[in-house]
Each structure stands twice: as C-alpha cells, then as structure tokens.
Design brief:
Layout lengths: L2 H14 L19 H13 L3 H11 L2 H4 L5 H29 L4 H18 L7 E2 L2 H17 L24 H25 L11 H24 L11 H11 L6 H23 L10 H16 L1 H5 L22 H30 L5 H16 L7 E2 L1 H9 L6 H17 L8 H10 L2 H4 L5 H7 L1 H17 L1 H21 L3 E6 L6 E3 L12 E6 L8 H12 L3 H17 L4 H19 L3 E5 L8 H15 L4 E5 L3 H9 L11 E2 L4 H9 L10 E2 L1
Parallel strand pairs: 5-6, 6-7, 8-9
Antiparallel strand pairs: 1-2, 3-4, 3-5
C-alpha cells in the first residue's frame, strides 16, 4: 500500500475514534535472510572463477599500464611526459646519492632504488602523477634499523669498509660493514613489501583513512627534526656514531656540542657555501614556479661544482673531508634477503610499510581528485609493495611517493606514468656511465641537499597559529605526534599519534551534551533553544537531542546529562519522596508540621506533574550497543515511576533493530512499539495523551 494511503487511512481512523494521535506508519520492507555460507560461497566463487573474461579483467586490474597504454595520446602527451620525466630524473641524481647517506647505504644503492621504483610503479600504479622513490622519513627509519643491526652484529660505529663483524650471513661469505648494511636494508625492504602486498590481498586499503592529515603532517615534521639533527655531524665533518633508543635527538645534540672542537673547517665552509646557494635558489624556484616551464636543477649544479672543487682541491687528502667514494657502474647480480634477520626487523618493517603506504595513497588520492580521475587504494598497496619486494633483490631500500618530486612532475606537464620510464632512462645513463664521476663529492654537500629539502616540513611550525584557529583538536594531535616523533622515538610517534586520534574521537562522543529543542512556529523544525531565538517549547512536553551514539563508554554520561537538562533526576526524586513519606508516617510532629509536609508534597506534585512526556530525538544517534539499549530502558523505567512518558523519535533502522534485539519493546511491560518519523508526530502524540501517568509508550 502506498505511503499516502497508509497515512490517510490512519488519519481517518484517528478522527473516528477518541484517544491519542497515531503517527503516520511506514510499511517496512521484508529483508531477505541469506546465510553466511551462501554469502561466502558467492564471494569465493566470484574471486576464484576462471574464465577468459575473468583472466583479462584480472590482468588489467593488476597491471594498469595494459589498460592505459593502448589509449595513450601520443601527440598530445609525449612532450609533457618526456619533459617531466627528464627533469625529475635530473633532480633524482643528487637526491638519490644524498638520501642513501641518510639510510646508511653507499650512493650506488640510492640510484638503484630510484631506478627500479620508477619502472615498477609505472607498470603497476594507478596514479598518473606521483613520483615514487626515496622519502626522507622512510630513509631515516631504514637508517635507524641498519645502524641498530650493525651494532648488534659487532661492527664498530664509524664506517670502516675493511672491518669485519661476527656475522653468520646465510646469503654468502662473511662481509664487511657496508655489505652487511646493504643486506639489512634489503631484508627490511623485502619484509615491508611483503606486508604491503598481504594488506592488498586482504583488501585493507581502507586503513589509510585512520591516518589523518594532521597525524601524518605531525609525524613527518617530527621525523624531519630528527633528520636535520642526524645531518649536522656531516655539516661539521664529525665522526660520531648514530644514537639509538629513546631521546636520540637530545642525545645527539649533546654529543655534537661536546665534539665541536673537532670540527672539520673544510666541511663546515663547504656546507655554509652550499646552504647560501641552495636556500635562496630553492626559494626562487618556488616563487617563480608559475612562470618557469621547469624548475632549475640548482642541486645538480651544486653537486657538479662541489665535486670539481673537491677533486682539484684534493679536499680528502689535504683536509680529511669525507667523500662519497667509489661508485661502481652497471648492476650487481640479484641476491636473496637474509632470512635470519627477519625476526629482528619484522616490527620495524610493519611500521615502515604503514607509513610508506599511507604517504603514497594520500598523495595519489590528492592528485587524482585535483585532475579528475580515480585511484584504487588496494592496487596502490600492490604497486608500492612490489616497488619494495623486487628491488630488494638488487640491494635497494624502501620507497614511497615523494611530494616534492610529484609536484615537479605535475608542474612540468606530466600526463601518465610514461614519465616514470623516462626518469628511469636518465638514471640508467648515470648508472652505466656517469656514476664514478661523483667519487670526490663531499658528504657534507649531500647533507646540505637533505636539509634543504626539509624546508616544507619545517615550515609547518609557522602554520601552528592558523591550525589552532581552524581546529584545536587537530592541532593537539599534530603537536603530540610531532613531539613524540622528534623527542622520544620516530616509530613510537606514529603509534602515539594513532592512539591520540582515536582517543580524541572517543572524547568527542563522551563530551556530547543533551540539548533541549524548541519548535520554530508551526513548522516541523526543532532546534536548540540555547542557540536560536524565537523557538517555542510545548507545554507538558520536553524535546531533547543527544548528538552522539549511545554505547558502553558514554551511556552513563548520557543519562547524567539528560537528567540534568530535564531538571528532574528520577533517582533523586524517588529518594526524596521516600524521605517525605517516612517523615509523614512517623507522625511525631504536631498539626503545623503535618500541614507543612502536605504543602511541600502538593508543591512538589504540581511542579513535576506539569511535565508528562519526554521526547528524545534520536536522529544523531548512529548506533546503539547493549549498554546503550539498557540505558534507554533505565531512562524509560525511571521516568515511568514518576508518571512521565518517554518517546524515542526519528530513529534510524540500525537503532530500531538494536532496540528490538535488545528487548526494549516489551508489550507485557507496556512498552509498545510506535515509530515516529518526525518530531512533530511525537509531540502531537504526546499532547493527545489523556493520562499524564499512562503507560510508557516508546517511539522510534
């Protein structure tokens, strides 16, 4: 029967009889019950079916380049892709060498990492614009794990390629410090990639939504402070071991101040000159990026100039400066991870996997939304996972999307991931021909490049006042995550940020208050009396709204807030009435005392008998658990004892199902189910009640 006919028939029946108004009834659809076995069978059948169409669809979904490459618009897109790929490749050369220093690796492995990541993501990624390669935070995490494992394996703190540790390396003969550092980084990268692929198989790409922008920004800023601190020793030319454990940032600064007397003046002067060149030129690139067709690669110019100066000035021999050293050409044969290391680095690999995936998905979704296309978070998980698994056999370390290079790709006309293949060609040329030319490049120059690229994250400190004005909760999450990542421990900062974010969400549900509503004239509009003027309350009927789910954590707060706003606490009222009855029954007073008690009782009854119905607007209540249903039962029962009816209005279907399953509706106890889909229906029903002390009817 149509809804109009149902409502009309109800109205006709209501006019023909005397009694409370009956609200408009909606006929519920009968939900078809499907057993979990049938659901499981269908899902397994869909996933495991084998047909030519299924194989083709699986191939296209798993290797996105197969889908977009045949549709490639060569004339329109090739120039932009070639230009952006070339420019990013040029920028990646000095950055790859620099970030390998942060990850405790030799420069050649940074070039390997960028090369393989560019190719694999071009084949498997769904974003058209992001650039996948080395990310400073991940390099820091990798470097911390590598340094810890080197220490546990018995290697000395300073880099010494001829020193051997007591290491049982199952992948080959006992190797030196550099060899073992590569093994640890590759094994860590392989394990992180396995985590990411497993998460893709389990379809858990949605986990990225739990890492808010404020959390990731605070984590990146805190890690940037740690990165900055770790590079100061190269600025000064000091040979200091990397500090491990909690509070490493403070301990590192203490160590730096203690060893200032051993500063290498050549490295210090070189660092200052490079900073004075790179910082202004980077700012010029940022300021005029709208006018420049491509950013000027000042980093590459500085690297070339510094390498020539170091080579002809013989800085290594004369002043003892640390240099990049021999960078071989070509590729090394693939090597299996060290399986015995996996138990030691499994937890670290998981945090690296989460951070890498979250950064990649957030950037890919941001640029996809900007340019009007869709990305698949689960496929992104596969892509970044294989960007770690496959290169790990070639001694590479962990990668993810990088914001700076992604912005460069977008601004230089990138249209597809074909630009990533062009970038790989530039890196291949360097790997095969040019790499040995960087032998004399000072490590302090690489440290300057790393620090200069932290400008974006460090600028967030200037945004704190604006963040505080916009949203204080997000700012608190940012500050706590940043402080924990920087001052305590980098990995712990991410965990603390997630926990603080979760507690903030819980805190918001627990800080919700009950609001009394008033009606706007004759319209079916009810809003907060404390927020708007001109609203009217109905005599004898109080309408309240609770703007949060009702569950185990806030059910007591819900009742307390409701009783306080109603102005009538049933428990206190019952206790007070029992006390008055006890005093009356004692009959110890005279006639004056008896009259005083009677007057008090009559005033009390007149005061509370004016309220005969309490309507609770449940539209903001998203769900109820068992504790929430029991709380509503208690509210109904408590007010029933005082002759006040409790009506629930505008409940969604989930709440209705929870009330039914929780036994809220019990005709034997007088709680019959009457569904009110508007507050006006509930108020009309309440006003039409004949008895103020009638049954406790319930409205949804």
């Amino acid at each position: 029967m149509p809804i109009e006919e149902v409502c009309d028939s109800v109205s006709a029946e209501d006019d023909a009889k005397k009694g409370p108004d009956v609200p408009c009834l909606l006929e519920e659809r009968v939900k078809e019950k499907v057993s979990w076995k049938e659901v499981l069978r269908k899902k397994v059948g869909k996933k495991c079916s084998c047909s030519s169409a299924r194989v083709k669809a699986l191939l296209i979904d798993s290797i996105p380049i197969v889908k977009w490459l045949p549709r490639y618009q060569f004339k329109d897109w090739i120039i932009g892709d070639a230009m952006s790929g070339l420019i990013v490749g040029v920028l990646l050369v000095p950055q790859s060498i620099a970030y390998s220093l942060l990850a405790e690796q030799d420069p050649i492995y940074g070039l390997y990492t960028s090369f393989f990541a560019s190719i694999i993501y071009a084949l498997l990624g769904t974003s058209r614009h992001i650039s996948v390669g080395m990310f400073g935070v991940l390099c820091l995490l990798v470097g911390q794990v590598v340094d810890r494992e080197l220490t546990l394996a018995g290697y000395p703190s300073d880099t010494n390629q001829t020193t051997f540790g007591n290491v049982d390396n199952s992948t080959g003969p006992i190797c030196d410090r550099s060899c073992y550092a590569v093994t640890v980084a590759a094994t860590l990268t392989f394990t992180a990639g396995i985590y990411q692929v497993l998460m893709g198989l389990l379809q858990v790409g949605f986990v990225s939504v739990y890492l808010s922008d404020s959390l990731l920004s605070g984590f990146a800023t805190g890690a940037s402070l740690t990165i900055l601190t770790s590079q100061i020793k190269y600025f000064l030319g000091l040979h200091l071991p990397r500090v491990q454990g909690w509070g490493s940032l403070i301990k590192t600064w203490v160590s730096l101040f203690k060893n200032l007397g051993h500063t290498n003046l050549c490295d210090l002067v070189t660092s200052i000159i490079c900073l004075l060149v790179l910082v202004p030129t980077k700012e010029l690139n940022d300021r005029f990026k709208a006018k420049l067709k491509a950013p000027i690669p000042f980093e590459l110019f500085v690297v070339i100039a510094a390498t020539l100066a170091s080579h002809f000035g013989r800085f290594e021999e004369t002043y003892g400066s640390d240099v990049a050293g021999n960078i071989p050409t070509g590729f090394m044969p693939p090597q299996l991870p060290n399986w015995s290391l996996i138990p030691n680095i499994a937890v670290d690999a998981f945090s690296i996997a989460i951070v890498g995936f979250a950064i990649t998905v957030s950037l890919s979704e941001m640029f996809a939304k900007k340019h009007g296309y869709m990305v698949d978070p689960n496929q992104e998980m596969y892509a970044i996972g294989f960007c770690n698994i496959i290169p790990s056999f070639f001694r590479c370390f962990t990668t993810s999307a990088a914001l700076t290079k992604t912005l460069v790709k977008e601004s230089t006309g990138c249209q597809t991931q074909l630009s990533g293949l062009v970038t790989a060609l530039v890196l291949l040329l360097v790997l095969l021909v040019i790499a040995p030319a960087f032998y004399s490049l000072q490590k302090c120059v690489l440290a300057v490049i790393i620090v200069v690229n932290l400008r974006g994250a460090l600028r967030k400190f200037g945004d704190i006042p604006q963040m505080w004005r916009v949203n204080r909760v997000d700012t608190i999450i940012w500050l706590i995550t940043m402080a924990t990542s920087a001052l305590v421990n980098t990995e712990l900062g991410l965990l603390v940020g997630v926990l603080v974010s979760a507690f903030c969400v819980l805190g918001r549900t627990q800080s919700a208050q009950v609001r009394q509503l008033g009606q706007a004239g004759d319209r079916e509009l009810f809003e907060d009396l404390a927020s708007y003027k001109g609203l009217q309350s109905q005599p004898g009927v109080a309408v309240f709204r609770y703007e949060a789910p009702i569950y185990y954590a806030n059910q007591a707060l819900f009742k307390k807030s409701l009783y306080r706003n109603v102005g009538l606490d049933p428990l206190k009222e019952k206790a007070r009435r029992r006390k008055l009855d006890k005093q009356r029954n004692q009959k110890q007073g005279g006639e004056d005392q008896k009259q005083e008690l009677d007057v008090s009782t009559n005033v009390d009854l007149l005061q509370h008998n004016s309220l005969h119905t309490l309507v609770i607007d449940c539209s903001p209540v998203l769900f109820l658990d068992t504790a929430g249903v029991n709380a509503l039962k208690e509210v109904c029962k408590d007010y029933e004892g005082l002759g006040v009816n409790v009506l629930l209005a505008q409940c969604n279907t989930s709440v209705i199902d929870s009330l039914r399953r929780g036994g809220y509706y019990d005709p034997k106890k007088g709680t019959k189910e009457i569904q009110f889909h508007t507050l006006s229906d509930a108020v009309s029903y309440a006003q039409s009640l004949k008895s103020q002390n009638g049954d406790c009817d319930t409205v949804v």
